[in-house]
Every structure is written in structure tokens, then in C-alpha cells.
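Internal tracking record. Fields below are filled automatically when a chain is submitted to the structure queue. Please do not edit lines marked as system-generated. If the sequence contains nonstandard residues, flag them in the REMARKS field before resubmitting.
Queue: standard
Priority: normal
Entity type: single polypeptide chain
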Amino acid sequence: MHATLPLLRDTDFPAIKRASLKTVQVNVGYRCNQSCLHCHVNAGPKRKEEMTRETADLVLAYLRQSGAETLDITGGAPELNANFRYLVTEARNLKVHVMDRCNLTILNEPGQEDMAGFLAEHQVEVAASLPCYLKENVDGQRGKGVFANSISGIKKLNSLGYARENSGLLLNLVYNPTGPYLPPSQDILESDYKRELAKHGVAFNHLYTLTNMPIARFGSTLISNNQFNEYMTLLKQAHQDSNLENVMCRTLVSVDWQGYIYDCDFNQMLGIPMTITNKPRPHLRDLMAVNLSGNAIAIADHCYGCTAGKGSSCGGALD
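SYSTEM-GENERATED OUTPUT FOLLOWS
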């Protein structure tokens, strides 16, 4: 796989600083039951990395100390981590809002049949990846049968109250473009998704549109297809200064499966650590007594992926 960081280090992206912390995003491991082209984590069934109980306890300690409002759990398929349920349960006991980055198909995997019920019981917000509302496009990107399996997962969640009025159970879908272009209007695409998915008898709350990052598996594919420079030009030409105020790195800390910390999940995958004095590779234990507000954010050219067009974050478009 081609390395993209050498192509991204030299950057003219505007300097930005952190605001007050709101979200702790934790990658609990890279093992997944799927291998998607756009995945910036290079997750897949053969990955072995997995967060330990000791590191999970450190995450919980930081939640208590920092006063963060949200724990955003990602992977891989985070549900495959042996400590996933423990982390969710203990975070909810701390009254922290928990979000699960779910690929939907995991809900039908052997040993995961009761996962949907667990998520509902603990009022976990589900952010579920579904790259299109058309069977042909989803199966073409992720493999035969994935669309039907995903619809089955949504039905499980709907049956438990997700996306139902007054249930308090949020199910948001996540869209990534299938190629080197920007996502369409989030509002318009959300209407299309709701109309088309209603034909399958399923419902969701909102759609998040995310821009593909020129890193890892997707970035390597761009290089192989001689499209990397063209895609970077697209991102830079679509940059909007107004998006800088709301980029996710200003209010989020990203924690990897070993407990090392970054300004965002993309920096984590590139190995660009958070900047803390005298700590070349800071760990979560180094952060316990640190006020990050005003701290400079580590940047590179991939940051244009978050400020292009309507903007992109873990919560979808910024504008």
C-alpha cells in the first residue's frame, strides 16, 4: 500500500487551535467483518489490534476527569472488541452520552445477535455506515449481500425503537462518496435516503455526509490510479474558511487502541500525534491534568478534506 503522509506533510492549511473538549473518540481496534475501499483505518477481518481492559479503564478515568460529554466509539467494528460492552456500560453509568460507529452488518454476525438489544438498553446513539440507498452500489463497494444484511440490521434497531418518535434512540446513517469527489448536499441526500429506504420498511433520524480522506486505503488507491494530485486540488479549491470554526478537532480528542492520543482520527491513522510539551508521542495518561483549550492542532494537507465544500466531520456536514 502506498504511503500518503509524505505527500501531505508540506501544507499551507491555516493554523487552528483547540476549544473546550466535548468528545472523546476512541478507536478500540481495527478488526472488522468488512473491508471497505474508503476505510481510512484499513480495517478488516485479519486485523489483530484490540484495546485492552486496562486502556479502557484509562479512557473511563479520563471521561471522569475531563468532564467530556460524549464517548464516540469506533473501530474496525467496535462491537468485536471484548471490552466494548464494558466500556459502554461504565460510560453510561457516568452519565456520558455514548455513540457507536456501527456498520450494521455486525448486528447479524454470530455472537452479536443480542447487540442491538444491548445498544437500545443503554440508549447508545448509533451512527451506521451505509454508502448508498441502492443495493447495486452498496454490494459493488462492500460485497454481495451487504445491502440486504444492512437493511436487516436497521430493521433490528427499528424494532427496538430506534428512529421512532419519542423513543430517544437515535439512528443516524453515514454516507461516503464511492469515488474521488465531494459529497452532495447533505439535506437533499437525506431526503433521497429516507424516500428510498422507506421502500424497504426502514427508518432513520439523520444522514451524515463525510468526505473521503486522501489517506490509508483510499489515498493509496488514488495514487495507484494517478488521481491523488487531482483529488487534493479538488479539496483545496473547495476549501471554505468558514468551516474552520466547526472542525471536529477543536472539541475532540482521538484515542487509539493503545491509548495514544491525537487531534483527530485521521491524524491517528497517519501517525501524527497531538502536540504536548516534552511528549513526542503523548499517551492518555499524560492528558489527565492537561487543559487542552488553546492548544495548537497538528495539521497536514489532508485537513482540507474537513473544510472542503459544506465541510466534513464525524457529525456530517459543517454548514
